[in-house]
Amino acid sequence: MKSQEPDPNYFSSSSSSLVSSTKWWSKETIAIVTGANKGIGFALVKRLAELGLTVILTARDVERGQRAVESLSEKGLPVNFFQLDVSDPSSIEAFVSWFKSNFAALDILVNNAGVSFNDIYKNTVEHAETVIRTNFYGAKLLTESLLPLFRRSPSKSRILNISSRLGTLSKVRNPNIKSILEDEELSEEQIERFVGLFLQSVKDGTWKSQGWPEIWTDYAVSKLALNAYTMVLAKRYEGEGISVNSYCPGFTQTSMTQGQGSHTADEAAGVGARLLLLHPQQLPTAKFYIGLDPFVKSNL
What we know:
It comes from Citrus sinensis. This is NAD(P)-binding Rossmann-fold superfamily protein. The protein is α/β, with parallel strands linked by helices and 300 residues long. It has helices at 39-50, 62-74, 89-102, 128-146, 175-182, 188-204, 217-236, 265-276; strands at residues 30-33, 54-59, 80-83, 108-111, 157-162, 242-248, 288-290. The radius of gyration is 18 Å and the shape is globular.
């Protein structure tokens, strides 16, 4: 994987690859959004529900999740809810069991659930294991558990991992560590080795000197791993009816940024929905989208 950065011309207004002129989805299209009681996840659930999909909102906290569902219901947007803590394998197992009992198949998965324990201008790795377990391993385990349930149809199933530009290879300053993710035949085992090296350096107290990302280090490493997993998964299912991409919404006004940012969660979710609902014939895979391009978020 040489680069996770997108083609700089990919979002240009002349690009036909992002034009979706035909509505292919319906009420029968099933979408799951994790970590969706607030922020970008909540805004994305709202947008998909507005567009007529059947949406499942998940949240770690039952009370907050139910309040989010109620607020949407008051707007005439009924959605489904189930408690899900992606950092807990037993919670994932319970969720998947519930899903299988209530739905015939899955069309869309948005791995949005994520945590960071850093203030916006600070950097600590005190909670590195929790960050990695939630942001990378949680998304990976949930995805692997749901893969057999995806609908294999001409419309193509879609997985969108909400990521960050902090998780790009350019942020890794140690060439030996960087080379692990640059391998053309990158495997899940190599990604886990990369993560293991980081957690060991945290344990040893050497993480500052070993060339790991300098900003929000544990969060950045978790997103590096998630982006790499996106590429591996996309390659595994290429031509088999599942599209897998990552999306960095940019500096968004959410609780993670203490309300700071250049745009709102609704704006970020508008782009996310646009990417998720591209026409099947124009749907790419193994792409890493960054930002709020005006063309991408227009005319859904």
